[in-house]
Amino acid sequence: MSWLVTGGAGYIGSHIVRAFREADIEPVVIDDLSSGFADFVPRDVPFVQGSILDTALVRRALTEYSCEGVVHLAGFKYAGVSVSRPLHTYTQNVTGTVSVLGAMREAGVHRYVFSSSASVYGTPETDPVTEDTPLHAESPYGETKLIGEWLNRDMAAGDEAWQSVNLRYFNVVGSGSDDLYDASPHNLFPIVFDMLLAGRTPRINGDDYPTPDGTCVRDYIHVADLARSHVAAAEAMMAGRRLEPAYNLGSGTGSSVREIMEAIARVTGIDFTPEIAPRRPGDPARIVARGELAARDIDWTMRNSLDDMVASAWSARKAHRG
């Protein structure tokens, strides 16, 4: 019994790989290492190095390892950068997803967990967002994730055996192990950690938003909690249980950027007062998602406090300081 994890050498994917192993489901990884690390893949986990754009390669991985399903995470995930690199984003995220789905059809694999994003909501009309909140993606990245959900829907419409789910989430942080860390140059935690380690002062982009402390509020969720719900979704499918088309993996409350900064100072012991920079264009004041449906069906819960998230991320970052 095995599942293919695309992007399984990445920060999130590697945690999902380990969560599958803990559930006694054998993972198989395919990753082109454009942002992942071969060292993140355990030595005894089958690792296919290559691009999901290579449909034949994906199909061979599915058949060679007798995969029962796919968790699809591989893609270009940087919403801000996607604005300046739309064609690259669409190629990786839309053409790549079509390739994965085509390989699954050719291999006769019908179970599919799609890593979507809360960016499909754009600037939401409701607070907090639910799975029924209208979808208005506002970046090429968000648009590609929305198209990915459409593709999933259309696969289900044309294949009675198709079992699938879209998992939507915001800011994934923390670490489940010191040897797995977030190396993204675009994510808040590694940006702040690197600035502190370099003796520089982190910045907050805007402190005049209509929020309690004036800074933007977002969901921050622990990567290990996220990984557990991907496995729970796969287990539900294998057990024949019906899932909703999409689930939000959200906190329901959120944390502000200033609260994040205060937690980082508290946990690291590095006292700093963040500089205040101008707002970034397009940053909504608050986007927070409810997670009750996911809690009901796929074992979603916030097992880690904000300090837990910071502490685990900081420990992993220090272990790989360079």
From TrEMBL:
Pathway in which this enzyme or protein is active: Carbohydrate metabolism; galactose metabolism
- CC cofactor: NAD(+)
Pfam families recorded for this chain? Epimerase
Q: What is its EC number?
A: 5.1.3.2
The record, for SUPFAM superfamilies, names:
NAD(P)-binding Rossmann-fold domains (SSF51735)
Segments forming domain NAD-dependent epimerase/dehydratase: 3-250
Q: Which reaction does it catalyse?
A: UDP-alpha-D-glucose = UDP-alpha-D-galactose
InterPro entries assigned to the protein according to its UniProt record, in alphabetical order: Epimerase_deHydtase, NAD(P)-bd_dom_sf, UDP_G4E
| Gene Ontology BP term (one) | galactose catabolic process via UDP-galactose, Leloir pathway
Gene Ontology MF terms? UDP-glucose 4-epimerase activity
Entry keywords, A to Z = Carbohydrate metabolism, Isomerase, NAD
Q: Which family does it belong to?
A: Belongs to the NAD(P)-dependent epimerase/dehydratase family.
Q: What is this protein called?
A: UDP-glucose 4-epimerase
Q: Which organism is it from?
A: Propionibacterium acidifaciens F0233
